[in-house]
Design brief:
By secondary structure, the protein is α+β, with helices and mostly antiparallel strands. Helix content is 46%, strand content 17%.
């Protein structure tokens, strides 16, 4: 590039505006900044891809002027609130780790971009930006300038259903077609090998062989291309992952089979080749379904049993599953509840916290008639909304996967496969060439057979399929037992847990049962009970919900100036009367040294009395803790006072640590301290006040009762009816890892035996080609049967 053209974009440089940096000429500060970023991060090889990779394509001049139209932009945005917008763009040119780094550092290239996250498998980037400093058109032009022009189709964006990539399904379908027909056409060869000579079979044998060869071409070049491309990228990036030896085994099998056909040396191994490609693609499909978050999206109804309160036409209220909500329904959203669907605000005003979506905690004030987005959290009193659309599965799944709640968990066994493959490939090649070098001086034909047999028999297909088949099977088994995990990585984390922390109220106690509630004090009349019920109707605290169920139904009254003070209580004005419900100090109750769990009431600053709650613990709680105490450190955290301490000490093992009077931030710090001591912590809470602790823990599980708040901070949702099976679920996670390790050992043992026999010259390529898919099927069958057997043994009965 000469000094009259920009090194980055290639445009002609006005000598007055010319910028020289690092002995290179740039037309503007923007191009110079991009080059600096690449240089600082050793990514200058980006400029080797093509001449002037940052050039603005001439065909985009004016191409995106339609993005100046606000109506069109609104259809493309997935979120818009004040000066904050979020958009997801499809970028076909994403192809390597450098692309990911560049696109996740867009904030360094243009002011106003707050964050950007890349979804590599889908080739998408999700960008959050400030409209006071930039706009969507500028973002698109910037991406085009640095060589990542997005593909925008309004037709695609008008539909809430994401476009599904079916290429892998098509490849598997082609592989199955080829496999079935090749096996059918191979019967003459099989009959010949059995000594069933036939003139007709001998006469048409060449025709069948060439027909088999033709059918093998799409299987090898199209269906198996996913492995060849992955192997090429791996070699290019010098990572040598598991795809390299898998692709190498297929290539050697295809080349050897082609030579046999061309020179009429034999039938080749196309039947084994096609069957292996099909099995590998089935495994890859299985892996995609279990690892990709799209599977979480697809099974949204199963994985998220969320309940919301619907206001019926007769003004009664009913709790319904979120996926039963339809357009036109009216919903009641209480304080601290997340809005599950897009809707129109019916109430006079609302304060919405969109931090789950944007990470910005400052609440936004909305007025009657304003649109509310799914994922916002209502603050203050209750509100009513009218539903605009049914639940958007993809949007809520994106909310679940938002960076704010993403945990940095390492996929240990995937990493193990990667590490093994880095050594596996060079060692395999070394062994193959050593065998060839030894036998070439004895018998050239045997030498070539040894070389081929070693590379075929050692193809690590079984090793690659072990983890996805095992964990994918286990996560489905757990789902059937109503433990819904976010992804398969959680199973690996569960297997490492050594400390379990339980919340008390709503977790080890029955949060939805209005039992053993007694009022002490001046008896409330019907009107006063109705006033109290209308106030606590807004709150989602477990005690409020229990008391709400206990009090008789009455007239619906409007609550003004509602306020909920964490750890103290709630207050508001109803029909001109000041009502307070909460702790004794909050309502101004007389001194009382009782440690019983109670909710105190005052009306117009006059203390009325208290509702005393006799705690009802979950069934089989004692047996569960006794089982868990044998292998885990157990802790109980509670925001309540020590009134239940003696009862819990008598009920639970002595080794259980009880900690009371814990605020939400103190629970989080408690988890942090355990982790600093080297413990792997599982937190089990009700998902209400435990969000911080659930997010901080290695594994966070939210208990799902009649009322469920969507909590992206957790790794799994457990149906409350399955609470006493926690120990069984943990055992199954450990057994699943044992199954994986055992299958690793079996696969490696098989390779060692097979390679040893091949090096001795006793294993023909044909036998190796037959044994390889058999070994793959055997390993996959082993992990599937073993995981099912362990699940049946551990989960069939309650202990």
């Amino acid at each position: 590039m000469d000094s009259n053209h920009c090194f980055h974009c290639g445009d002609s440089i006005n000598q007055k505006d010319k910028i020289v940096f690092d002995d290179k000429s740039f037309c503007c500060t923007g191009c110079k900044t991009v080059y600096e970023i690449f240089s600082e991060n050793d990514l200058t090889s980006y400029y080797d891809l093509e001449k002037s990779p940052g050039a603005t394509p001439q065909e985009i001049q004016g191409k995106y002027d339609y993005l100046d139209n606000d109506k069109i932009v609104d259809k493309l945005l997935e979120f818009k609130e004040d000066n904050l917008q979020i958009v997801t763009l499809y970028i076909p040119h994403i192809h390597c780790s450098s692309c990911i780094w560049i696109l996740e550092n867009l904030n360094k290239l243009q002011k106003g971009i707050l964050s950007s996250q890349v979804n590599f498998p889908q080739k998408k980037v999700r960008i959050t930006f400030n409209t006071d400093k930039t706009n969507l058109k500028n973002l698109v032009v910037l991406l085009a300038k640095i060589g990542y022009e997005p593909y925008i189709s309004l037709e695609n964006y008008q539909s809430t259903k994401p476009k599904v990539d079916r290429s892998l399904i098509y490849k598997a379908g082609v592989a199955f077609f080829c496999y079935g027909n090749i096996m059918l056409l191979s019967f003459p060869e099989y009959f010949g090998n059995l000594g069933m000579d036939d003139l007709w079979l001998d006469q048409y044998k060449p025709f069948f062989r060439w027909l088999i060869f033709a059918l093998a071409l799409p299987s090898f070049f199209y269906s198996a291309s996913v492995y060849h491309k992955a192997a090429y990228q791996s070699i290019k990036m010098k990572t040598f992952d598991i795809n390299v030896p898998m692709s190498l085994g297929l290539v050697v099998m295809f080349v050897r089979s082609t030579i046999d056909i061309v020179f009429d040396l034999g039938p080749g191994f196309f039947d084994s080749l096609s069957s292996l490609v099909f099995l590998m693609l089935v495994g890859k499909l299985f892996q995609q379904k279990t690892y990709d978050f799209l599977s979480f999206e697809r099974d949204f109804k199963s994985y998220f049993p969320i309940a919301v309160t619907r206001i019926n036409p007769d003004k009664t209220e009913s709790s319904v599953s979120v996926y039963d909500v339809e357009k036109g329904d009216r919903l009641l959203i209480r304080n601290q509840e997340l809005i599950p669907v897009d809707g129109i605000l019916i109430s006079n005003s609302a304060r919405i916290d969109y931090s789950f979506v944007t990470g910005e905690a400052a609440p936004v004030r909305k007025s009657s008639g304003d649109k509310l987005f799914a994922g916002g959290k209502q603050l203050g009193g209750f509100i009513e909304i009218e539903v605009l659309n049914s639940v958007s599965q993809s949007y809520l799944t994106q909310l679940w996967d938002n960076e704010v709640f993403r945990k940095s968990s390492q996929q240990a066994y995937t990493t193990l496969i990667t590490k093994v493959s880095r050594y596996f490939t060079p060692i395999l090649l070394l062994i193959a060439f050593l065998g060839l070098s030894y036998w070439i001086f004895i018998d050239a034909n045997i030498a070539f057979n040894v070389f081929t047999a070693v590379l075929i028999i050692a193809c690590p297909c079984a090793l690659a399929l072990t983890t996805p088949f095992t964990l994918g099977n286990v996560i489905r088994i757990l789902g059937k037992k109503k433990l819904y995990l976010k992804n398969t990585t959680v199973i690996e984390q569960m297997a490492k847990i050594d400390t379990i922390v339980f919340d008390k109220t709503g977790t080890i106690t029955l949060g939805n049962k209005a039992q053993n509630i007694v009022f002490e004090g001046e008896m409330l009349n019907d009107k006063e009970q109705s006033i109290v019920r209308n106030l606590i109707r807004i709150s989602n605290h477990p005690l409020s919900r229990k008391l709400y169920d206990f009090l008789p139904e009455g007239q619906k009254l409007e609550v003004e100036n509602f306020d909920e003070i964490t750890g103290k209580g709630i207050q508001g004005i109803i029909q001109g009367q000041q009502v307070k419900v909460g702790s004794a100090s909050f309502v101004g109750a007389p001194p009382n040294h009782s440690l019983q769990t109670a909710v105190h009431i005052s009306i117009d600053n006059k203390y009325k009395g208290r509702y005393v709650f006799a705690t009802v613990y979950r069934p089989r709680l004692k047996e569960l803790f006794e089982e868990l105490s044998k292998n885990y450190n157990l802790k109980i955290l509670s925001g309540d006072n020590e009134g239940e301490k003696e009862a819990l000490m008598a009920l639970l093992p002595q080794s259980t640590e009880l900690v009371f009077n814990q605020k939400p931030d103190e629970k989080l710090r408690f988890i942090e301290n355990l982790q600093k001591q080297g413990h792997n912590v599982m937190m089990i809470g009700d998902g209400l006040n435990d969000a911080g602790a659930l997010a901080q823990s290695n594994v966070g599980v939210s208990i799902s009762e009649d009322v469920n708040i969507f909590s992206p901070a957790c790794d799994g949702i457990l149906d409350a009816s399955q609470f006493d099976r926690i120990h069984q679920f943990l055992k199954l996670s450990k057994k699943s890892i044992t199954v994986i390790k055992t299958s690793f050992a079996l696969s490696l043992f098989y390779n060692v035996i097979g390679i040893s026999i091949a090096l001795m010259g006793w294993l023909s390529p044909l036998v190796a080609a037959i044994l390889m898919p058999i070994s793959t099927v055997t390993i996959v069958g082993f992990v599937t049967i073993a995981s099912n057997l362990w699940a049946r043994k551990l989960l069939t009965n309650r202990h």
